[in-house]
Design a protein that fits this description.
alpha/beta; five-stranded parallel sheet; Helicase, Ruva Protein, domain 3; 4 domains; globular; Rossmann fold
Length: 481
Amino acid sequence: MVQQILIADDDAAIRTVVSQAMMRAGFEVRATSNIATLWRWISSGEGDLVVTDVLMPDGNVFDSMPKMKNSRPDLPIIVMSAQNTFMTAVKASEKGAYDYVPKPFDLTELVGVVRRALAEPKNDGGRLAQEENGESMPLVGRSPAMQDIYRALARMMQTDLTVTITGESGTGKELVARALHDYGRRKKGPFVAINMAAIPRELIESELFGHEKGAFTGAQARSTGRFEQAEGGTLFLDEIGDMPMEAQTRLLRVLQQGEYTTVGGRTPIASDVRIVAATNKDLRQSIARGLFREDLFYRLNVVPLRLPPLRERLEDLPDLSAHFFAQAAKEGLPRKMLTTGALDVMRQYTWPGNVRELENLIRRFCALYPQDEITAELVESELANDVMQFGGSDDNGSGPVDLSHATERYLADYFSTFGDALPPPGLHARIVREVEYPLIAAALAATRGNQVKAADLLGLNRNTLRKKIRDLDISIVRSIR
């Protein structure tokens, strides 16, 4: 029996091309330009699948989808929309859509989505989440790169799968983690974040799992850890690549067994949290260097999600800039806008600091310049200052990097993550350790693991080098060829 596709779109050209594509794929087709007709067909039992736009002349299809799903729980609905925002993808998922396809779309891809939907076993309907009041925008952008992110997030909202978010610094990894929580099945529970790079190594296990009174010097009372604080919600492990090996082992045990013990405790505590991890490092390289457990990597990387750098989504610059201008205005700063020439200049820049760098630039414009319109000349001046200040290059890192400026930039970003507060004590030791590891590892690699030559290259005593190799857990590479 030939399967029938119901198509609803107020654009006659789209109805035609989609109908033709479906007929070439061997389906029967019925097409309409309004929700009322679509509902009449569905309620009478017609159609095996629906492909529909969101905004129709007689209403919003999201308002009608609950009754469609109640009437025909097994009927797959694929939502198309030119409103390519994160909230559109989320609402499509909440209302029970099989998938969300942003316009413009590839007809071959759409046919593939239809075939997959029809091939899947039928179920008795999904959970319909209540629609959020208002349309806040935790994620901004309509580029193809962001559409892929929105679709992936929409599919993960109603699951508890562990997610690992990768991306350069400033791409918005914590925003994505919060979106997964705020629009997911655990949104009524707590969202707890911990930055592994900001916690002294010797305190990470206590921070994660808590400790009992007397567990170590200074433990004068029982303390709850982040796992306990996140019970029933989401635990966001930021900069997971900086987690020390001993803590990795304990985290792996929690993921495997679903329970943990506090530091100094003996009674296992059941864990009910969703884990979302994030890193700007290549964890596979860390595994090869012996710095990250491979078994933990596969436990965390159930759903990998890569956030694109801003230079891969430059078409989002107008939306992002308008968003940050609006945020600044809400905080009492003067409202401003960018000229066309200013946007053209911004599109030529590589944005090494990504969206965070753009946000800081917009705030600077609002705070420092009296003009209502930000011109190309002002943008060029500010971006040139950034390049000079941080030793950046316009070729995205292919030029030489000034270590002093790079360190200054890293520390500026690091301090900004704490807002008005200060990082934990011991900053000097942590920074020295982070610089010392790649320095010694590079020297050992250059000398093919010869510690005598490496010590001479570094200007260190051989015994001192051996101790540092041991303390830093550096794997010795005997050959680089």
